[in-house]
Amino acid sequence: MVRMGPDVPLLNEYKQEFFWKRFPQTVLGGPRFKLGYCAPPYVYVNQVVLFLTPWLFGGIGTLLYQLQLLQELHATVLSGMLMFGAAAGVQALALYADQRTGTVERLGAPNILVDDEDVEFTHCVSSETVRFIAPGKRFGLNVVLHTMLAGVLCGFGTWYVFLGRLTALYDSIGVSLVVFVLSWVTLCIAEYSLIVNTAAETATFHAQDTYEITPLTRPLYILIFIAVDMADRFSGPAPELQLASQVLHVLFLFLPLLWALGILPPLDALLLWGMEQTLVFGLGGSPMSSNLRLLLMFGTSAGVAVCNYFIPSTLGVVLFSISTGFLLSLDLSQVGTLCRGPRLLLYLSLLLVAMSEAGLLHHFLGSAQSQSWFKGPQAPVSYLLLVLFCFCWALREIQGAYVVGGVFLNPLYPKGMSNVQTFKQRNRGLYIAAAIRRVLLYLVSPFAMIAFLSLDKSLHLLHRVSLSVGFTRAFRVVWQNSEDALLQMVVVVLVRLSAGNDMLPGWDNLGTGVQLLVGLLMDRVTQFLTKLKFTLTVLVTSWTEKKQRRQSAGTLLALNASLCPLLLAVVTLSALLSAPLLPLFTLPIFLVGFPRPQRSWPGPVGTACPCPDSIFYQQMSGSLASALRTAFARGSLGSLAPGSHFLGRFQDRMVWIMILERGYGYCTVNIKGLELQETSCHTVEARRVDEVFEAAFERPERLGFTQGFNLHWANALTPCAALAVRVYSDARNVLSGIIDSHDNLRKLQDDFLKALVWLLLRHCVQKHKGFLWINEEGPGVGGRKSQSSHLAQTTSNQPPEAVVVESNVSSLRFRQDSSSLTSFGDWSDEDDLFGPQPARRTVALVTAEAQLGHASLQAGASLPGSVGMDSLFENMALSALQPLQPLGLGIGMPALDKGRNPEIFRESPGSLPQLNFNCPQSEVFNLPTGWRTAPLLTSRLLQLRSLFPDDWFRFSMGQFGPAVQDETSEDMTKALKEDEALKELHTQVALSCLISLGAESAFTSPSYVYRLYCGDIPWTEGLDWLSSSKELYQLALRAFRFSFKLLFDQASLGPVESPEELFSTLEVYERDWYIGLVTEKGWHDSVLQEKPFLFSLGQDLAMGTYTGRVLSLQEQLVQVGRLNGEGVRGQWANLSWELLYATNDDEERYSIQAHPFMLRNLTVQAADPPLGYPIYSSAPLHFPCL
What we know:
With 1186 residues, the chain is an alpha+beta fold. Helix 12 (291-310) crosses helix 19 (465-480), helix 19 crosses helix 20 and helix 30 (950-960) packs antiparallel against helix 31 (970-977). The longest helix has 35 residues, at 72-106. It is globular and about 120 Å long. It starts with 12 loop residues before the first helix and ends with a strand. Residues 103-116 and 772-910 have low confidence and may be disordered. It is found in: Membrane. InterPro entries: Pecanex, Pecanex_C.
């Protein structure tokens, strides 16, 4: 993303036009009066007539009732039936128009409803006009349902706004007339949206309205208002209901405004939000990680409250509430984990002790109430609760980097952390304090709170609905959220202590169970404060941050200052509704977003936009979850409430953590990973995140008084703690001076032969022991893709030891029917500036031909020794490449004596003689017959004979020999070393591989080394033979990669000084390293399997350099901070409005630009797809934190 200035348009010109056409539709419920093109007048007239139809039918019923020609009920039914008939007629016309239009489309005519809505109208009732005004429903069931609901709504709406009813409510004919007229505007808007054309709602929860639920939203709210009025009419005298009806009749007039502003939620969001709020504040539960869990938990918890109401014994209520509250506060989805021995025993013990304590206290002391609360049995328990709260709060505060709400630095927290071990040693004292807090909070406080509730005198008045629900919640929240429950009981105790011996009639009559609903008040106050902080951040930074200062910033600040009471009212209303505070376009223009669940998104948790970098987050998620489990138990991250957001930072990785639900001894979280390829906006915010963490964790040992403050307090991020996590550390190096050093390259050939000999011998040993050496991830054979290349895909019937060979495949493979291998059709100069070049044969091509039955290349397909560059380097200028050395075929070389063992080096791959080994154990190290049949001249092999490392072969044989002997024998090992036939066999195979890879001469070109490392091997004389044996080819390629890694290490750390050191180094490569390419599946699998080290060779085409990348798995400190949860919810609410309603998907829009205080770009990334784009998102992770 190119970071743009603050005055980038909020909406581009096309989106602005689109928005100003859509918004009037939303206000009026669906009529389209602003089209953007000329339309006949009857289009507008038809919409006006349909809009006013409910008013006409309602007016008929009202007039007949006012003239006393019909009774109230009959007038209501008449209006409803008329509206039902009109709705049925509209739906019939829409269905007829759809069928006619469908017939025309099947005949091949273009669709008249194009995207720009430029419709050609013919007459007032043509199919085009009908489809434009009333598109119709997608489902037949909705046609019936919505038509019936339209009649019901019109009938009850007529009844709701009868002038006689309004006059009785307000005692004023003038007020009644105003309410009557404006109420019918609201009803017409809802009817039009239901039956004619549904407008796009600003309160959009789902990206798509699959089941056509949106048309039901506005009628539902009207029916809720009517239901309250019906309750007032048919119930006895109830001043509260009459007052509510008066208020709602006035509020009814403002429903169109509330719908246009998006304050009222859609049906699905309203249902989920209502269940969540009732479960948390009415029944003592927790928000759930999925909609299904929320529905099941809500139903079960409501059933418990109903049972409590009907249990006749107060003792039975106490025991039942404690047992069900404890069980429902556990993570019942992890039943298998809960039923394990130690944990099951602990939970059973806790439950039995709690029930015994409550039963005994209530039975013996529950009725012994004193006139003075200070002399009653609850007083000592109350003081105990105060002491426990103070200790738990203090011990939790010192666990984090900051204290007192993130204002002051914690002097006890470790400073200047150098490594993990030092951090753990310095943190040992805090670990002890955390263990004490955990015992007090989870094992002592619940029993103290149960004792307090069991001794309450209001238990004797239990058979009232409010008290039954209140005590159900009180006994549940003791377990569900012990920390919050302790705070709520302390507030109750402080109120009683402040009253002294005086009675508080209103307070005491509520009972302790209902008094604990102060938790609702405390939650709303907390939300108000966090929303207010977010508001001030947006206001202040819109002026102080130069890159955020728009031309309208001064005007908006002055407007907010002059309307300060209104701004506070908006913040207060959003806090009371537990709705997000929506900053429009993230400007200081604040609206109340519609209430929604704490998760903010409707879809299941765990959706992401994966990419190759996702594996790093997937690998670290398990270790991070384990570290979070410990941090949650210790209280290092502060108070954990569902809906809390945390941000973790390590090197270039950003981890977004969200708390989904919380219970007794468990927590459920979602871990998201943000993109690693940082844009400019991402980089700006990442730099600020680093600054915030550095100020908290890398400060000096001693701080002055002024330095003890959090200088980044206004930032959305507050550092909490550093967590030790097993994660890959990523180091990247430019290989200039290593890969282009001639001294280093001269060693590469010798190292390759040594590595190949070692791998051949190890392969024989592993095969002798009964399992293949090649592991699951394979040797990492791969090649780079280019625009004109294709991936060579392996079939599913490959042997298990085979690996996917990703290499450049010439188009010859796919053109056999049009151009044979003997033709010169591929010798084209279209892609080459320097004339025709012969087609290059790569490994994948040779492999493909072998699979298609080609025994060898026919004449004319390519020239021996040629190296094509069109596929591999087509994105790079040829002048930037170093010249490749031509590969000689040994033609014209002087004749040489064949030397020893002429039966080994043969001129032709004919029948092979039997090998005569001198040692019986040599047969273990025998190689397959096909590996000896390289079609190479004996003279070439003899010429390279001196390159074979005889001493290294004998040394390696001495190391591997004892592994294949039943009893270790020095004589047998010596015989293996001196077996000339065995040595010559390995010599032939190793040198044949060397020639087949084109490495018979010393390496001089870094580009050629890179191509061999990538598996992009140019054609050589022996390449057909080498590629025909996948095992040998993989061994050879793996040996070359080992040799290059050896070159890299020797250039960095110094030369290998002894055979023992070299042997040990190769063992470490095989055991602890994956050496390959980043694009290979083996790299992906090795990261997930947590291979200790990974190495990859890469090329930076822009800089013209080669790079080495090393991943090291080790325990590192991941810095974690708490985000302003209300700021996150507010920005996500704006994102939902901006993309789903305003369709502002511009990648350079203002609301996605970097904001160092709000972390706007990171917050947008962390949203669930399709609005956000995290590259990794875990399923809900349940883990214990007791």
